[in-house]
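Appendix B, record 7
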Amino acid sequence: MSDLVRIPLSVLPHDEGFLRRRCPRCDGEFKVEDGDRDDDATDVDSEESGREYFCPLCHSSAEGFWLTPAQEEYIQEAVQAATAHMLEQALQDGLGRGQGGGLVTFDLQPSEIDEPIPPDEPHDMMLIGVPCHPVRLKVPEDWTGDVACHICGVRYPLDVVHVKEDLQ
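Structure tokens (predicted):
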């Protein structure tokens, strides 16, 4: 039995199709457009995907998880709740409710397992588009530096990549 648990990105809250990411190197947060793309540009974990990603803010490539602390906490709570439900179901299936027939007799009561609450995902940040890949990003509203494509790492001045609201 594998210890690896895969969780689809769709369980994480999105901002109108954008998934919040956190750079494991600089801790800066940005958002990546999450669409049905062949490049799978929003993998939760660059080590798992075997791809190298770049932070649009610090321009560094970084391996590891690109989850925010709130996303990590939510996923951990979701896994714990799912594990508790599976264990409860296995006990009920394997032992039966209140049935004897062996050395142990007990009555299982359904537990009150709190379902995790997804983190809030505000509609924030400035929309940008990089010319090298057909993926839009969002960076903090007050960002003034160059922006790197998170797929290839090419840097662009902010005035080149800023997508005006009326052009969306």
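Remarks on this record: The beta strands are 18-22, 29-33, 53-54, 61-62, 126-129, 136-139, 147-148, 155-156. DSSP finds three helices and eight strands in the chain.
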